[in-house]
Design goal:
This protein is of the alpha/beta class and about 350 residues long. Helix content is about 35%, strand content about 15%.
């Protein structure tokens, strides 16, 4: 089995937290016995989740087909991006949530990709093709942020973001903290609930202040939501669909809802790091990650929701997976460049006005 460079194993999005912590790393060589050298080694920076799946279905087969050794650096978004910033890593390919990938783009840390070398981009959903611009990497998976709830603890059916403000959720609600990946999405949702077609910060924070009294806890990790939900400390709240299976295991009657105003796209991207000596091989790997075969296997194992539109899933396979053009293309997508410009101010305001 491949050796993973040590670090904090973190799930994306959630992983995917906007503020993360991690441990140090040490170099280790991976590979499947190809006798790779520096000339045919590809260094990939990624999260530490579903290790066996990625080794067996993504990295291992690519190594064999391309006669290359893949070396992995593992950690959360923040620590891995910081290593690139500091020049302490020789990474070729980096997986990041779109929030962190936008930071990398703004700081000039990524190579511009040659889309002609990544033909599988043509088979993925439009929203995933160039989420941060044509020069940079695609999203290889898209999840959705919607609402999960326990119908046994609520007096109404949930269909809308505005339902979070209903008295039925009094003192039994959780929402993501502003520092969680989904935090800025909740700020945007609050603006929509306030009746705005375009984002209005004052209106958003006004609505969130109304809501704050009903919040049992502003969660920063999905495990906190799952624990509160399973112990019936909360009736529900916004959560990424990929974690609904954990709620369903704890509360079989649990429901997941795509709000009528639209759920939010949660995108993880893959980019080529500036200065990579293996740019063409890195682009081949991105193309591999987007292939119908890899995407289908990942979806069926419920590791990642597919972006390749050719993937076909049964109803059972699609359960808990963000799947199908009718779902994916209707997701609300935040402007991550705008979010990066505003998030510090939003965090300060959140701490003053909301999380008191």
């Amino acid at each position: 089995m491949k050796k993973w460079i040590s670090g904090l194993a973190a799930v994306a999005m959630t992983s995917v937290l906007l503020a993360g912590c991690g441990s140090g790393t040490e170099n280790a060589s991976g590979g499947s016995g190809n006798g790779g050298t520096a000339a045919n080694k590809l260094v990939i920076s990624t999260w530490g989740f579903s290790e066996d799946f990625f080794n067996e279905e993504v990295f291992g087969p690519f190594e064999k087909e391309h006669n290359v050794d893949i070396v992995l650096e593992v950690g959360n978004n923040a620590e891995r991006l910081n290593k690139i910033r500091q020049g302490t890593s020789n990474v070729d390919v980096i997986y990041l949530s779109d929030y962190y990938a936008q930071q990398g783009i703004d700081e000039g840390l990524f190579e511009k990709i040659d889309r002609s070398k990544i033909p599988n981009i043509n088979d993925i959903y439009d929203i995933a093709k160039a989420p941060l611009g044509e020069d940079y990497g695609p999203a290889y998976t898209i999840g959705q942020l919607g609402i999960a709830y326990n119908p046994d603890l609520l007096s109404k059916e949930v269909t809308s973001w505005s339902d979070l403000w209903d008295p039925a959720f009094a003192n039994n609600l959780t929402i993501p903290n502003i520092t969680a990946t989904a935090g800025p999405m909740i700020v945007d949702a609050a603006s929509r609930v306030a009746g705005n077609d375009t984002f209005n910060e004052d209106a958003a924070f006004g609505k969130l202040k109304e809501l704050s009294g009903n919040v049992v806890k502003f969660y920063s990790q999905t495990s906190e939501f799952v624990n509160m939900f399973s112990q019936e400390e909360i009736a529900g709240g916004p959560i990424m669909e990929m974690y609904f299976k954990d709620l369903k295991a704890a509360v079989p009657n649990a429901k997941f809802v795509t709000p009528s105003e639209g759920a939010y796209a949660v995108m993880n991207t893959v980019n080529v790091v500036k200065g990579s000596k293996n740019k063409e091989l890195a682009e081949e790997f991105i193309n591999w990650q987007l292939s119908q075969d890899v995407q289908a296997k990942s979806a069926k194992e419920k590791v990642d929701s597919p972006v390749n539109a050719k993937v076909e899933l049964t109803a059972e396979e699609a359960e808990g997976v963000t799947y199908g053009a009718d779902v994916v293309e209707k997701l609300n997508k935040l402007d991550m460049e705008f979010v990066n410009q505003q998030v510090k101010g939003w965090t300060d305001r959140w701490n003053r006005e909301i999380a008191q």
